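protein under study:
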Amino acid sequence: MKTIYHSHRTSALILAITGSLLLFATGCSKTMNDQNGTGNNPPSNEIFMQGSQFSPATLTVALGTTVKWTNKDGMTHNVTSDSGVFTSPSINNTGTYSFTFSVAGTFPYHCTLHPSMTATIVVD
């Protein structure tokens, strides 16, 4: 009888550990998906054009980073540096534009088609 009780207790412990690991893995999976841009949160080097705004509005990246803009809006946008450092062509829905920052500094930019859309890249 003691052996059976011990066997059930061990089984319950194994089941609890397995369940905890599955919950942990599921939580990690959702976080990784959002970081990879499959949700509404862009990964650390990507900016979404959505709802007639850039998201995030300010992005800080390391020198040498390639930033990618993805249009998730139903209308065309573009990305134009206020100082002329970078300028994209028109970007349709699901289209992208990338630029590699090889100089440190603060780079405000806007959409020339929708001037109220503004944002900033900070390169350290």
